[in-house]
Amino acid sequence: MRTSYDRALGGDGVPAALLPGPGCRLVAVGAAVPASVLANRHLMAFLDTSDEWITSRTGIEQRRVAPAETSVADLGVRAAETALAAAGLDPGTIDTVIATSSSVDVTFPSVACRVQARLGCPPGPAFDVQAACTGLVYAVGLADALVRAGSARRVLVVGSEIFTRVVDWRDRGTAVLFGDAAGAVVVGPASDPGSEILAVRLGADGHGADALVAGSADPGPMPDPLTPDRPAPARSLGRSVRMNGREVFRFSTQVIERLVRELAAAAEIPLDDLELVVPHQANSRILATAAGRLGLPLDRFVVNLDRYGNTSTASVPLALVEAALAGRCRPGAPIGLVAFGGGLTWGGILLRWGETAVGLDDARLSQRAAAAVPAGIQDAGGTAGE
Ligand code: ACO
Questions:
Q1: Which of 113, 280, 304, 329 is catalytic?
Q2: What is the 3-state secondary structure (H, E, C) of 160-209?
Q3: Beta bridge mates, 340
Q4: What would the pLDDT profile of 114-167 be if each residue is shown by its tens digit?
Q5: Is the CB of 244 within 6 Å of ligand 1?
Q6: Which domains does the chain carry?
Q7: What single-letter DSSP state applies at residue 328?
Q8: 307 phi and psi, to 5 degrees?
Q9: Which residues contact 129 (CB under 8 A, 6 or more apart)?
Q10: Which of 98, 171, 200, 339 could form a disulfide with 137, with the two C-beta atoms 3.0–4.6 Å apart?
Q11: 212 Cβ inside 6 Å of ligand 1
């Protein structure tokens, strides 16, 4: 059946175009992940599921879970501090903060305002963008436009998620998919012409809104994923994710293919020259199908959802950070960032990789280093291990 978003993808949206100068680039990218690891087998303690089902249908093997006392803003601050430190940037030089989260604990103050204050940034504009899992790409696209227009000089973009407080842990169809993480990107003018955002493509079609919804639900007696034997209501925000998995699967594979083709065409780069695609990490089968539709080898796609699950707005920066730290981002390489999610929304950015500073704050590694914690032992309140 041809749906409304098929029509929008068929050309009703604003086409991607090569962006006019002066250029804009990613100055720094950072990510932060909490220490607690929740492996698939731990979910079997309270969900009728199996490691085999989750791994074979989604590619996810484990996810991280933030401690109860950590907020979305806390995790976002860690990612932002990591990005700023990697670039040696003073927070005082950030004039605009844009945050995005689909798991906010309070509607306002915005995550951006809280991050701005905690970092000590000057009192410039600070606001949140809501575009579900596409939020970070939307926010970077917006930052790019602000910098090109001369309305901002250095924009901090933060995507932070504690999705384990939003999912309904009684629903095996959705609970197994998500995890907690934050990512941050500093966007500023391109001083080096080899390092630049070349094309941006954002879109949405609200006619597909019902396919994927995170909203209020009857909280009921909700198990805590880290301590399933005793309820811990403080962790749950009393919401749930409702999803038409097959519709979302079909939409996602189509939209990745279309975004990558449009971005490459706009930047006048042959598809085969695209060295890396950093996609939203929803499901490994979605990524394999999209790569097949594009005729690109799957190893051009960054995949790290096996270790983190779907971290919504944090997934693209987290995957980009890991790819860069693994040496997969060659200076001068054209790299595509693509995301999709509820709304339905989609967004893509094509950039030429340059001197972008990169940092990862993995609380598990720092915890182990600080206290020589043996593998499998968790932070306070956790039961799961590796
Ligand atoms: N463990 C065991 N069995 C399960 C689980 C589970 N965790 N979840 C569902 N099942 C069962 C169902 O109950 C059903 O059983 P039945 O046949 O007895 O009724 C069976 O598995 C098949 O269920 P489907 O929902 O049809 O499973 P499907 O093969 O479609 O896979 C999935 C589900 C993985 C969600 C798939 O639809 C998908 O990949 N969708 C893409 C959506 C996605 O990845 N969303 C991520 C968030 S959205 C985003 O980030 C944009």
A1: 280
A2: EEEHHHCCCCCCHHHHCCECEEEEEEEEEECCCCCCEEEEEEEEECHHHH
A3: 346
A4: 999 999 999 999 999 999 999 999 999 999 999 999 999 999 999 999 999 988
A5: no
A6: 14-219+238-367 (3.40.47.10)
A7: -
A8: -100, -20
A9: 98, 99, 100, 135, 138, 139, 142
A10: 339
A11: yes
